[in-house]
Design a protein that fits this description.
The structure holds two protein chains of two kinds. Chain A has one domain (about 1-295): Orthogonal Bundle (ABC transporter involved in vitamin B12 uptake, BtuC). In chain A, about 70% of the residues lie in helices and about 5% in strands. Chain A has eleven helices and four strands. Chain A has helices at about 1-30, 40-60, 65-95, 100-120, 150-170, 175-185, 185-190, 195-220, 230-245, 250-275, 285-295, and strands spanning about 130, 140-145, 145-150, 225. Chain A has a two-stranded antiparallel ribbon. A two-stranded antiparallel sheet of chain A has the order 2-3. In chain A, strand 2 (about 140-145) and strand 3 (about 145-150) form a beta hairpin. In chain A, helix 1 (about 1-30) packs parallel to helix 5 (about 150-170) and helix 5 crosses helix 6 (about 175-185). Chain B is mainly alpha-helical. Chain B has two domains: about 1-35; about 35-85 and about 120-404, ABC transporter involved in vitamin B12 uptake, BtuC. In chain B, about 70% of the residues lie in helices and about 5% in strands. Chain B has 15 helices and four strands. Chain B has a two-stranded antiparallel sheet. Chain B has a two-stranded antiparallel sheet with strand order 3-4. The longest helix of chain B is centred in the last third of the chain and has 30 residues, at about 320-350. Chain B is globular, with a radius of gyration of 23 Å. The chains are: A mainly alpha, B mainly alpha. The interface between A and B is large, with 53 and 57 residues.
C-alpha cells in the first residue's frame, strides 16, 4: 500500500511535467495540424538557460534563498524558450504551411538536431551531463507513508497554476477566443478579422513558456541535465497528448497526468508482475505501449475529436 | 549533369554507357585506394551499407511519402539477429535460461543438443540474409499497422518511439535471460563465408582472402560483396518504383483518398512499403554485424536514423540516383571532416574549436532544414516531374482549393 501511494505521488509529479509539455504539442497541433518535433528540445533549452541563470545568480548575488533563485531561473528561462520556439516557427514551419506533410516534419527533425548540437557545442554547456543545484530543502515531506520532496511539491503547484492560467487565457481572453477560432477553421477565422499569424506565434510562445517551466523543474527534480534530455520527455509528452486526445488542452492535462501515473505504477510493479523478468529500467516503454494501444483502439484519445485522415 | 543520365526509359543507350562507366570505376576503386591503406576501403564499405539503408528508407519516405524516424532500428534488428544466430551468443542465452528456470532450460538444451550448448548457433550467410529480411519486414509491418488509418505524422512518432525502445531492449535484455549481452554487445560474430571462402580471411592469413591462388585484403572482399548488394538494391528498388506497386505508392503519397478511389488497397500497399523498406535495413544490418564482428547498442542511436534520413532528403526524395549521391556525400562527410577540418583548425587557431562530430551533426540538421525550405526535391531531383514529391504544385492546388 505504501508503494502504491508512493508511486501515485511519483506519477503525479512526472505526469504534471508531461502535461506541461503535452500542452505545447497539443496547442500547436490544434492551430496548425503539425507535430512540433523540436518541442522536447525547447524544454531542454529552458533547463539549460535556467541552469546558467542559477550559476550567474550564485556568482553575483550569493546567499539568495533557494526558492527565489529558482523563481528567477524559471522567469529567465521562459522568454528565451519563447523566443526559440517562435524562431523555430518562423524559420522551419511558416514557409511550409501549405507544403505536403512530409516537409515540416523533416524540418522539425532538422531543427531538433540543430538545437541539440548548438547546446552541445557551447563551451558553457557541452556534451557531458551537468549537475543541477539542489535549491530547496532536501528534507522529505511525508504524505500517508509516502515521501515527496519540496521541489516536487513546488512542481505540482507550478503546474497547477500554469494550467489554470492557460485555461483562463484560452477560455476568457480575446486571444484565447482567436486561438479557438483558428483551430476550428483558419480561413473563416481570417475572414472574421483574426490575424492567424499572430495567433500562431502566440501559440508557439505559450507552449514554449510551459515547456520552459517543465524544463527547469525537470532539472531541479532530477538534479542532472544533458543536451539530449528533451528527446524522451518530448516523445512521452506527445504520447500523453495523443492519449488525452490531440488538439484538446484538457486532454493534454489529463493525458499527461495519466501517463505519469501509468509509468510510475508500471515501473513500480513490472518486476513483481513478470516475476523479476523485466525490471524498472523498462519504465520508458510504457508511454510507447500506451501510444500503440491508443492509436489502435481509440485514435481520438480520451477527449479528442476524430483524427482520422480527412485530407 | 546532362551526360550522366540514369533514365533507362527515355535514353537507354546513354544510361547504359553511364552505368557501365560508373561500374568500371567502382570495380577499380579498391585497387586504387589500397595504395593509401585499407582504412579507406573500410570507410567505403561502411558507406555502401549506409547507401543500402538510404535506398531502403527511400521506399518508405520517398515512394510512399511516410516518414520513418526509427529506421536504424531495422538495421539493429538485422545486426542483432546475426549476433544471436552466428556467434557463441546463443550458448550464453541457453546458459542464462538454465540458470533462470532450470526446467525450461534443460528441455531447451535437450532440444538443441550439446553442440549448440557449447558453441552457440552458427548459421551461414544464406540463412541469415533471408531471415534478417523477414524479421525486419515483420517489425516494419507491426510498426506500421497501428498508424494505417491515421495521418502519416503518427507513423513518424511511432517509429521514433520504436527506435528509442529498441535501444532500451538492446541495453537491458541481458538479465535474467541474456539475449543481447547488454551494453557490451555481442562479440565474435562469424565473418561472412561464401562458397567456403571466408571474407575475413582464414586463420593465420593476416586477413587476406584467397580465391584460388589470388589473394586480396579482407576489406576488398567485403567491398565487392557490399557493392554487389548495393547494385542489387538499386536494381530491385528501381524496378519496384516503376511497377504497379511503385505507382500505387506514389499515388498514396500524392493523395491517399484519390488513390483509394482509384481502387488501390491502401492498407496493404502501405504495409508493403513499411515492410519492404524495413527488410533492406535488416539485410544491411546483418551485413554490418558480420563485417564488424561485434554489435553494440551504441551503433544504433537516433543520430544514425537522422543521418540516413538526411541522405535521402539531401540527395532527392524518391529519386534513386539522388539518394545514392546523398548517401555518398553524407557517408564520406565524417571522414572528410576528420581529415580536413580538424587539421585546418589546428593550423589556423592552434586548437580544435569545433569538433568534427559536432560539425557533422550541425550539417545534418542544416541539410534537413535548408533542403526542405530551398530545394525540396533534393540536390539531384528526378528528371521526371511525376516522380518528384510535388511540393510546388501542392501549394498551388491548395491555394486553388482555398479560392473555390
Amino acid at each position: 500500500m505504501e508503494t502504491f501511494v508512493q508511486q501515485i505521488l511519483n506519477g503525479l509529479v512526472l505526469g504534471s511535467m508531461y502535461a506541461l509539455v503535452a500542452l505545447g504539442y497539443t496547442m500547436v497541433y490544434g492551430v496548425l495540424n503539425l507535430i512540433n518535433f523540436a518541442h522536447g528540445d525547447v524544454l531542454m533549452i529552458g533547463a539549460m538557460v535556467g541552469l546558467s541563470i542559477l550559476k550567474l545568480l550564485e556568482a553575483w548575488f550569493p546567499g539568495l534563498p533557494g526558492f527565489v533563485q529558482l523563481a528567477v531561473a524559471i522567469l529567465g528561462a521562459i522568454p528565451v524558450a519563447m523566443l526559440v520556439n517562435v524562431l523555430i516557427e518562423r524559420v522551419a514551419y511558416r514557409r511550409l504551411r501549405n507544403a505536403p506533410r512530409l516537409a515540416p516534419l523533416i524540418t522539425a527533425i532538422g531543427v531538433s538536431i540543430l538545437l541539440q548540437t548548438f547546446v552541445m557545442a557551447m563551451p558553457w554547456w557541452g556534451r557531458s551531463p551537468l549537475p543541477f543545484p539542489q535549491l530547496l530543502s532536501s528534507e522529505p515531506i511525508m504524505v500517508g507513508g509516502a515521501m515527496i520532496s519540496h521541489t516536487q511539491v513546488l512542481l505540482l503547484v507550478l503546474a497547477a497554476v500554469a494550467m489554470v492560467g492557460l485555461v483562463l487565457l484560452v477560455e476568457r481572453t480575446k486571444m484565447g477566443r482567436a486561438m479557438r477560432a483558428v483551430a476550428e477553421n483558419p480561413r473563416v477565422a481570417g475572414l472574421m478579422g483574426v490575424d492567424s499569424n499572430s495567433v500562431i506565434v502566440a501559440t508557439f510562445a505559450i507552449g514554449a513558456a510551459l515547456a520552459a517551466v517543465a524544463g527547469v523543474m525537470w532539472g531541479a527534480n532530477y538534479a542532472s541535465i544533458t543536451f539530449t534530455m528533451g528527446v524522451l520527455p518530448g516523445l512521452k509528452a506527445f504520447c500523453a497528448a495523443v492519449l488525452g486526445g490531440i488538439g484538446n488542452i484538457y486532454g493534454a492535462m489529463i493525458g499527461g497526468l495519466l501517463l505519469g501515473i501509468i509509468e510510475a505504477l508500471g515501473a513500480g510493479y513490472i518486476g513483481d508482475l513478470t516475476g523479476g523478468f523485466l525490471g524498472s529500467h523498462y519504465q520508458d516503454i510504457f508511454a510507447f505501449v500506451v501510444l500503440i494501444l491508443v492509436l489502435t483502439l481509440r485514435p481520438s484519445g480520451i477527449m479528442g475529436e476524430r483524427v482520422a485522415d480527412r485530407a | 549533369m546532362a551526360f550522366l543520365t540514369f533514365d533507362v526509359h527515355h535514353n537507354k543507350r546513354q544510361a547504359t554507357i553511364t552505368m557501365g562507366l560508373l561500374l568500371a570505376l567502382m570495380l577499380a576503386f579498391p585497387f586504387f585506394a589500397a595504395q593509401y591503406g585499407n582504412s579507406w576501403v573500410r570507410i567505403i564499405d561502411i558507406a555502401l551499407l549506409y547507401i543500402m539503408l538510404a535506398l531502403g528508407l527511400n521506399i518508405v519516405v520517398g515512394f510512399a511519402g511516410l516518414l520513418d524516424l526509427g529506421y536504424i532500428a531495422f538495421f539493429a534488428v538485422g545486426a542483432y539477429l546475426t549476433g544471436l544466430f552466428s556467434s557463441p551468443q546463443f550458448a550464453a542465452l541457453l546458459e542464462s535460461v538454465v540458470n533462470y528456470h532450470p526446467a525450461i532450460g534443460e528441455s531447451l538444451v535437450a532440444l538443441f543438443g550439446p553442440e549448440i550448448q557449447q558453441n552457440g548457433i552458427h548459421l551461414s550467410v544464406w540463412a541469415i540474409v533471408p531471415l534478417a529480411a523477414l524479421v525486419a519486414a515483420l517489425f516494419g509491418a507491426l510498426l506500421g499497422a497501428p498508424t494505417l488509418k491515421l495521418r502519416g505524422d503518427y507513423l513518424a512518432i511511432v517509429t521514433l518511439g520504436f527506435g528509442e525502445i529498441i535501444r532500451i531492449f538492446m541495453n537491458n535484455l541481458n538479465d535474467p535471460i541474456n539475449f543481447t549481452n547488454g551494453p557490451q554487445g555481442i562479440n565474435m560474430i562469424d565473418p561472412i563465408r561464401i562458397f567456403g571462402v571466408s571474407l575475413a580471411g582464414e586463420a593465420g592469413s593476416q586477413s587476406t582472402v584467397y580465391i584460388g591462388s589470388y589473394g586480396m585484403p579482407s576489406v576488398n572482399a567485403y567491398y565487392f560483396l557490399f557493392l554487389f548488394l548495393c547494385i542489387a538494391t538499386i536494381f530491385i528498388t528501381s524496378r519496384l518504383q516503376h511497377s504497379r506497386l511503385g505507382r500505387a505508392w506514389v499515388a498514396i503519397r500524392e493523395d491517399e483518398i484519390a488513390a483509394k478511389a482509384m481502387g488501390i488497397n491502401t492498407r496493404n500497399v502501405k504495409l508493403l512499403a513499411f515492410s519492404m523498406g524495413a527488410s533492406f535495413g535488416g539485410v544491411a544490418g546483418a551485413m554490418f554485424g558480420a563485417f564488424q564482428g561485434f554489435v553494440s547498442p551504441e551503433s544504433f542511436s537516433l543520430t544514425e536514423s537522422i543521418a540516413v534520413l538526411a541522405m535521402v532528403v539531401l540527395g532527392g526524395i524518391g529519386h534513386i540516383p539522388g539518394v545514392v549521391l546523398g548517401g555518398v556525400l553524407l557517408a564520406a562527410l565524417p571522414e572528410v571532416l576528420r581529415h580536413v577540418v580538424e587539421p585546418a583548425q589546428m593550423a589556423m587557431f592552434g586548437k580544435v574549436i569545433i569538433e568534427a562530430e559536432v560539425l557533422r551533426q550541425l550539417l545534418y540538421g542544416l541539410a534537413l532544414v535548408a533542403i526542405m525550405l530551398v530545394r525540396p526535391a533534393g540536390l539531384w531531383p528526378s528528371p521526371n516531374k511525376e516522380d518528384r514529391p510535388n511540393v510546388a504544385n501542392a501549394r498551388e492546388e491548395e491555394q486553388e482549393a482555398a479560392a473555390v
